[in-house]
Amino acid sequence: MKAKLEEVAQTYGIENWGAGYFSINKKGHLVVHPSEYDRRGADIMEILEDLQRRRIQAPLLLRFPQILVNQMKKLTGAFRSAIKEFDYNGRYYGVFPMKVNPRREVVEEFLRAGRRYDFGIEVGSKPELYAALANEQASDSVMICNGFKDESYIRLALLGTELGKNVVIVIEKIGELETVIQLSQEIGVRPLIGIRVKLYSKGSGRWEKSGGESAKFGLTTSEILEVIRVLRENEMVDSLRLLHFHIGSQITSIKRVKNAIKEAARVYAKIRAMKINIDYMDVGGGLGVDYDGSKTSSESSANYTVQEFANDVVYTIKSVCEDEDVPEPNIITESGRMLTSYHAVLVANIRAEIETVVGEYESVKVDDDDPQVIVELKDLCMGINSKNYAEYYHDAIEHKDEMYTLFNLGLISLEDRAKGEILFWEVCERTAKYAQNDKSMIDEYEELRQMLAAKYLCNFSIFRSLPDSWAIDQLFPIMPLHKLDKTPTELATLVDITCDSDGVIDKFVDLKDIKETLELHPFKGEPYFLGIFLIGAYQEVMGSGHNLFGSLNEAHIVIEDEGYLITKVVPGGNLGESVETARYERAALQESFGELAAEQVKRGRLSAERANELCRQYESYVSCYTYLS
Ligand SMILES: *Cc1c(COP(=O)(O)O)cnc(C)c1O
To answer: What percent of the chain has pLDDT over 70?
Structure first.
């Protein structure tokens, strides 16, 4: 069935969640753009064909570095224009929080392209700091060290200070301060010190508990005063330069942002009034991404834009500073989700449709010799219509239950059971169809429709590539990458290839609600590719090796005037690498396989020649991709 492209785009809500990065071309293929204003585009199906020629197959991850840079531009631009609009007397410095996506390519892109925007980096652990330190960054930019720290963490941070970087050690726990003072005096460097304040204000959404009185991080008011006292005592109060807070990720409501800023700005002003020259205010992360495109405060959305966020931060700090008559601080953000979500697209192919009902209703022959319950199910099938379907459907459920009872008592055969199942599901399908046309009944039969929905087997692991869908029911936009000039006529849910029954996606983005099924095209065995979008934040690093599925094939795409360039291809994990994560050794596996084969030769069950061949074949699996090919 031919369809208007706009209608299909609407079905999937591209314009709501895509932030201008995605569109559909005349061929009905999905196209990626480097920014919302740049109409150059790359046809994802063409990219897939190119990669196929290089023997890089789905499932795979496409990375668009231009989108990373554009998001950084957008964030910086929003703050710069807010600073201008409100005549704010401070500057803006963005930092990229490394935990959101620590991949080298991502971090390097931010620091390289970020030189023009004074973009820095935020680390929350020793390994992140270790990796970040060796990167070149803009001389004006900052490196923020968050997270709990021991002596060796602080020593490593001070190495960065000696290297000439603006490393800010943020005190999360009062005990860390002593170590910072002691080590910096011992080494003879002047550290930059920040304090993380525990706010009374909370965020909103899933990560609400990261803020508020019982938060895991941050100093209480009396601890802040203690920090100041100890620094004064050591004549180091000039080192105190930054006030930090972070009230949680994906803050869905702008009101919570404003409240937190108001409170933190007061804390800043009161400290500043004590003649302490704190000159940076770090407002943390939490800038929300509108995954479902609804622009609401629901958990997978946010009710504000990037510009509104920037305006509120700048304006609120300014008004508190005016009120308290203190200078305005430079502003730092640690937004990570907003910067990285859009740049990565997961491409997975559909392998099969898993049928709930297998068997044709027409082929079921029922006669009077059949058990009564089967005859009655057949009668229901024949007689069901738009007026009686509710009653017939309930009768069918009773008969089906009775049929299984009879089967368990040994009273009916496997053939009877098969007939009964086919007849029962036929009644269900007809019921769903009648209910669909009956507006008053739509909700009543939602569960039935859900049961009848096709299940498409999708070649990827939710645990490896989409952990937040499994762990916290987060929504991600999903849609076909081609056939978009045809109306999707099937309703389906997705199952992944792990053996885990939790490996299912049955919640999909919708403007007003959450959809329980996704509109897809009928699957007849020909190649069918789906894209899973906005997965660039947290998913890659939090994914796990359930069933030993490994990393995905990956390609980096730069969009040009005439099409695109594939600038990097990284083959995904193979069986050899995958088993090593569970501490097997390839050589040892090969050796024990060989010993088992030799044993069979000794017993005369296998020829030596065949045994060698088996060993050779086993060995060749070492380089096999972990997904279905
Ligand atoms: C996780 C984290 C961030 C990033 O938050 P986003 O919601 O991804 O912007 C920033 N700062 C700190 C301290 C964090 O723990």
So the answer is: 99
